[in-house]
Amino acid sequence: MARTLAPPTALAIGAPSRVKARDWSGIVAHAILLAAVAVLAFPLYYAFVISTQTLSQVTSLPPRPWPSTALFSNYAEAWQRAHMGRLLLNSAIVALGVAFGKIAISLLSAFAIVYFNFRGKQVVFWMIFVTLMLPVPVRIVSTYQVISVLGWVNTYWGLTVPLMASATGTFLFRQFYQTMPDSLAEAAQLDGAHPMRFLWSILLPLSKANMAALFVILFVYGWNDYLWPLMITNTPEMRTAVIGIESLVPRTSQLPEWNVAMAAAMMVLLPPVGVIVVMQRWFVKGLIETEK
Known about the structure:
Distance between the termini: 50 Å
CATH topology of the domain at 91-243 and 271-291: MetI-like fold
Number of strands: 0
Strand content: under 5%
Largest sheet: none
């Protein structure tokens, strides 16, 4: 039986309109994305612009929305006045210590919860998870008292150790380990591997993407933390970079040198941005694998 075909003109009816609709939808989507990027990026751009201007240009009206020629002098003055070298070193120690400490503790706690059977295992997990509702600002007084008794005030131990426990990391690794087939643990037992060998040789290589994603989040968190370093340190040598910016803003009636302060802010911004850019691929991969 011959198949009845529609006329060519009938098949083509409506095709141009659909193509145009798809074209317009793509243009609108790109326009919305560009507008969102512009809204998010403009404050950073304007902060950079201010860091390149002189004080008279910063305070002039109307504001100048383009860079000027005082970039090197502003950054050099901010580096010297705020002792940015020591502050950035302190921030790096805190951020790396918090990130690696949280990852190590989260790995071990999630491994114990998933692969060991003991009484009250679920209760222990939910007790850890509930601590998400008790961030550092809520328990800061009791935490400070413990650190003071230990003699860790104004030390790197006091800056990092109280921030290392992470319910978020424990939950992330627990969810990932639960997706692992039971045959992995059974094969390791048959080969005579003890639990730590199983963790080191099998689970850790499989968790690299998750560890990288968590590292990015925790590094930025440790780098940007303000309240705890402000409370636990009492000398300029132990301050972090985020607190150091405050020293460039006078608390008197003197006109603040916003160009120098913004130069310091841009220097403080660069390390976490660099970590995000370098580890972007692993960060996205870790989030996707975690959801699976």
